[in-house]
Every structure is written in C-alpha cells, then in structure tokens.
Amino acid sequence: MNRIKLAVIADDFTGGADAASFLKRKHANVVLLTGIPLMLPDCDCVVFALKIRSVPVSDAIKKVHDVLLFLEQYQVEHLYYKYCSTFDSTPKGNIGPVMDFLLDYYDLTYITSLIDAQKSPLLIYSDAVLKDFKTEKKYPCILYSS
After folding, report:
1. Secondary structure string (H, E, C) spanning 94-143
2. In percent, how much of the chain has pLDDT > 90?
3. Engineered SS bond to 44: which of 18, 19, 29, 79, CB 3.0-4.6 Å?
4. Is 53:86 a contact under the CB 8 Å cutoff?
5. Distances (CA, A) of 103 to 30, 34, 81, 106
6. What are the chain's domains?
7. What is this structure's pTM?
C-alpha cells in the first residue's frame, strides 16, 4: 500500500496545477490528476484537479466523495482542499458545502481555512506544504494568486 504524504483536492484545474507546482518546487514527487485512476503511481503527493467550482452542490460533493473513497486504499497523512484563491463563490456556491461535507466525512469539529486575496501573499505554515522533500528541511512557502 502506498503512503501519500499529501492529497490535494482542488476545485478547478488552475488551482490544482498551482498546488502541484508549489509541491514540485519543494521536490515532492507529485502527480496531478483530472480524474480518478485505477491506481496511483509511486508518489509522495497527489493533486486531484476537479472541475467543481461552478457545478451544482450535489455534483461537487459527489466528486469529492468519490476521491475520498478512492484515497481510502492509501495511507494519506494530510488532506488539503484547495478552493478558489479569490473565494469567488456565491451564497449558492460549493466552497462551504464541500467543507461541511469534509467535516462530516472525517467527523471533525473544525477545518483550518486559509483565504488569499488577489495581491497579498499568504504565508502558510504546514509541514505538508513547506517541507523540502529532498532535504527534509522545512521552509515558509508564499503562495500568490494570479
């Protein structure tokens, strides 16, 4: 059974590609997917770039649930839900409902949410994101919206 240090579920391809590139810069062996494969190749991190930002809530939750069911066969240390960095959801959007689903799925009482603004850098302190996978050193990582 593969051990996955970080699994990322992104709500669109751009966000997924951004997350994968940040991990690659830190020497992670990362795989970027736009769907669910039969099995994962050998990797430290996997990013699922889903197209769920503007679909009906029930469809978004089903796609996230399908990813979580797939990941059950792997030992995933950390899960990161990468939603739109400009937080351009509507009252009927998917960000909140997907977070609520994740809370229920993992029986959690809270989720740490990091919101970025267009021109201000966001400093993230998380071993999963900041670790240089080659040297095992940990660094702050600054993420910019584009």
Report:
1. CHHHHHHHHHHHCCCCCCCCCCCECCECEEECCHHHHECCCCCCECCEEE
2. 49
3. 29
4. no
5. 25, 24, 12, 6
6. 3-143 (3.40.50.10840)
7. 0.77
